[in-house]
Amino acid sequence: MKREIWKGSEAIAEAAIRAGCRCFCGYPITPQNEIPEYMSAKMPAAGGVFVQSESEVSAINMVYGAAASGIRAMTSSSSPGVSLKQEGISYMVGAELPAVIVNIMRGGPGLGSIQPAQGDYYQATRGGGNGDYRTVTLAPANLQEAVDLMFDAFDIADQYRNPVMILADGLIGQMMEPLVWKEHKPRNLPPKSWAADGRKGRDHNNFITSLLVEAADCEAHNRCLEKKFQEMEDKECRWEEIMTEDAEVLLVAYGTPARIAQTAAEHLRKQGIKAGVFRPITLWPFPARRLREIAEQRSVKVVLDVEMSLGQMLDDVKLAIGECKPVRFYGRVGGSIPTVSEVEKAAAGAYEEVK
Amino acid sequence: MNKEIILSGFGGQGIMSMGKNLAEAGVEEGLEVSWVPSYGPEMRGGTANCTVILSDERIGSPLVEAPSEIIVMNRAALHKFEPEVVPGGTVFVNSSIVPDKVSRKDLKAIYVPCDEIAAELGNGKVANMVMLGAYVGATKALKVETIENMIHEIFTGKKAKLVLLNMEALHRGIECGSCTE
Lengths: 355, 181
Description:
The complex is a heterodimer.
Chain A: E1 4-7, H1 8-18, E2 21-26, H2 34-42, E3 49-52, H3 56-68, E4 72-77, H4 79-84, H5 86-94, E5 99-105, H6 121-126, E6 136-138, H7 143-160, E7 163-169, H8 170-174, E8 176-179, H9 215-235, E9 239-242, E10 249-252, H10 256-270, E11 275-280, E12 282-284, H11 288-295, E13 302-307, H12 313-321, E14 327-331, H13 340-354
Parallel strand pairs in A: 2-3, 2-4, 4-5, 5-7, 6-7, 10-11, 10-13, 13-14
Antiparallel strand pairs in A: 1-8, 6-12, 9-11
Helix pairs in contact in A: 1-2, 1-7, 3-5, 10-13, 11-12
Chain B: E1 2-10, H1 15-28, E2 32-39, E3 47-55, E4 69-72, H2 75-81, E5 90-94, E6 108-112, H3 114-120, H4 127-139, H5 144-154, H6 162-178
């Protein structure tokens, strides 16, 4: 297969089209404007619809409508824009609609900065909208993974009839890297017999809503959703283990910081400190069980969580590890990216402290 | 091989595309590559820089703290990035615009009058291609042939008339880069 060099945002958009996405609605925001730009150029030729909406709120609700008709639909934005979409995401979970939402994160809170950040972890994994809901959250660390995950994202969304989020920091969106377009094996997906795509000889109208006024009905609906969330937790967890077999310092990071942590771990090993990296690929469901197993290894002295936030995934790391090993944190925020030497220093410091 | 390069200058000097050319040529030669841009909210006239890594091995961090080479197309770039270069590294200076010399003694300096050469060739826009040539000539990190093929691929159709100009710019740069040994 031929290696091609792509820019992150454009690769994500191309992957979506190849995965069968036929409706893109979005509103521009840096640093992900290349996604709508690419979609506007390529989607019509793919037989799909591109809409530059008047706002993020309308974009997510257009996606709601498109998804309800049974076609694969998506939207993309960056942090402040994704905040505006939260209501729509909650409604889609309630109405059991599949869709993909891409968040190319920038510095926050508020309008923040336009440089890479990871401050939307809580929003993505806990749900920024109302109600008890979950969205599978996929966090690529390189462009090959970003395009591969786009195919999976649409499949997961269709399989569970639930929105899926791609959570990438601005660097993934802006950088260029080689990738190959692999053959994607689609999942065996159920037919969309629920779609509001015309009567088609059925004896009833398909009706899509998130409104269940009777408490008992709404509770029953929530129990059904709970079952789906449980199934996602059981089946969709993904992670990568890098040099963890004999690690004394276990670095935990996702997205770009995971790559920085990997280089830092290689440097640390040259200095005689055995470091390894645990990289969650799904942030929800969080690969807690596996992280716990690795942390329990006798070799592991300390765990260092590295993020471009003030420590959000840190909660999940601590929930997974509990009291079994000490957990430390290093983070940069607001659009600043941790350097390899900063991470090395934090890891060496943590190691010295517990040795 | 592991080349960690920072390219820097004004927006509009073709910094980003020079970096892209390096990365694309690297892919062509089967290397692992990464290209990371960094620019302010403004485009033309602001500072623009990008980081390119060319490597035999999987690239971890695509960001670089101690570059093996820097390509500086304006004065600010020299002052900003010279202190970061790894000892023994190389600084490529566009001497048409930057009057200063490289001050560190542990670095190799290559001065390339990019804009003067481009003006001689009749088109100021190829200054970045002169610099790309100098980089390839001095480091031998990529094959000249790969860059030549790329120029043929970039300039097609209406732009095909620019092939010759860019070839000349490339080779004038290679001369500058390779005769400084």
